[in-house]
Amino acid sequence: MSSDPNPSRQIVLGTIDDLQPTVNFASHAEVPAAEYWGPRIIPDYQLFCLLSGEADMQIGEDHQTLTAGDSALYGPHCPHRIITRTDAVFIGIHFAYCQESLEPVHPAFSIETCSEEALHKSIRPSYKLEIDNKELLELPPFFNMPGLEPILMRIVKEYLNEQPGYRIVLRALMTELIATIVRNQLTKRPRSLEQSKIDPALQAINREPEKNWTVNELAALCGYHVIYFSSLFRKCTGESPKQYLISERIRKAKYYLLSGEKMEVIAERLGYASIHYFSRNFKEETGLTPTEFKQQ
Questions:
Q1: Residues 205 and 272 in one domain
Q2: Disulfide check for 5: which of 72, 118, 184, 294 has CB 3.0–4.6 Å away?
Q3: In this structure, are 17 and 164 located in the same domain?
Q4: Tell me, what's the pLDDT at 133?
Q5: Which residues of the chain have pLDDT under 50?
Q6: At 271, phi and psi to the nearest 5?
C-alpha cells in the first residue's frame, strides 16, 4: 500500500467480468454525533452507506454532506475523513476488487493515519472498471441508489455469522453489488447522437428477437443506407446486426432455460428452424450446450 497523497488520478481496477471481490470486513453500526474516522488511509476499498442521520465526508479534495441513503465509495490511494453530524446508522464494507483468496483480511491493522495537510492537498483518484468493448467506466465517489440496503445487510449477516460457505457467498453478493452500481452508472450516461441513430433497430430486435431481421430491414427502420447503417451499428455495439440478433436470442434463451421451458419450445419461440441449429448457436455464444448451461 502506498500512502502517497497525490497518486495518478486514474486507477483501472480491471475488467468487470474478471473481478474476484473479497469482503474483508462488514459492519452495521449506530454511532453518536461527532463520531469521526480519519484523516486516514485504508489498505483496501470501502463502501460507506448512511442509513440514517447526517455525516460530513471528505475524500481528497472532495467534500460531501451525506444524508440517509447516500453512499461513498473510495480506496487505498488517498486520504479521507468521516464525521457524523447527528446520531447516525451506517453500513461499512471493506473489500478488494480482485483477490484470488476468499479469506477476509481485516483492514484495522493496516490503516494509516495522515496529517490534515495531506488530507487537504490530496487529489481523489478516478477509479474505473473496464466493461464491454474495452470501455472504461468511472465508479462514482458519491451516489444515492435506492434498494441497496437489503444486499448490504445480507453481506453484513454473512460476514458476521460465518456459516459454511460464507466466503463464497460473500464473493457472490459483492459481485452483485458491484454490478448493480455499474449498471446504475450506465443508465446515467448521456446517449451519443450515433447511439440514438440505431435505437429503432435495437428496439425492434429486443421486441421481436424471433424474427429473422435482415440488415436491409433494420437499416430501413433507422432511415439509413445499409452500408452506413452496418458501419454505425458495429461502431456503437461492437457487433454486426446479425451477431447482435444472435446474442439477443441467446440472452433470452438463457432466461427461458432457467425458467424450466423445454428446448423445443425455446427454439421455436426464438425463430430457430431446428433444435440442432439453436443448440449450435447457443454453444458458439456461451461455450456450453443448452443442457450443460442448465445443469451448471
A1: yes
A2: 118
A3: yes
A4: 66
A5: 1-7
A6: 85, 15
Domain count, the chain: 2
Which pLDDT belongs to residue 124? 87
Beta bridge partner(s), residue 82:
37, 57
CA separation for the pair 76, 94 (Å, rounded): 11
- Which cell numbers hold the place of 256? 427461458
Contact (Cβ atoms closer than 8 angstroms) between residue 222 and residue 198: yes
User: What number of other Cβ atoms are within 10 A of residue 263's Cβ?
Assistant: 19
Model pLDDT for residues 251-274, shown as the tens digit of each residue: 888 888 877 888 899 989 888 888
pLDDT tens per residue, range 147-158: 889 999 999 999
Burial (CB < 10 A; 0-12, 13-18, 19+), residue 273, is exposed
pLDDT of residue 224: 94
Q: Are 285 and 257 in contact (CB under 8 A)?
A: no
Average pLDDT in the chain: 90
The size of the chain, in residues, is: 296
**Cβ 38 vs Cβ 80: under 8 Å:** yes
d(CA 296, CA 282): 15
Helix (H) or strand (E) holding 244: helix 241-258
Q: Does residue 256 share a domain with residue 119? A: no
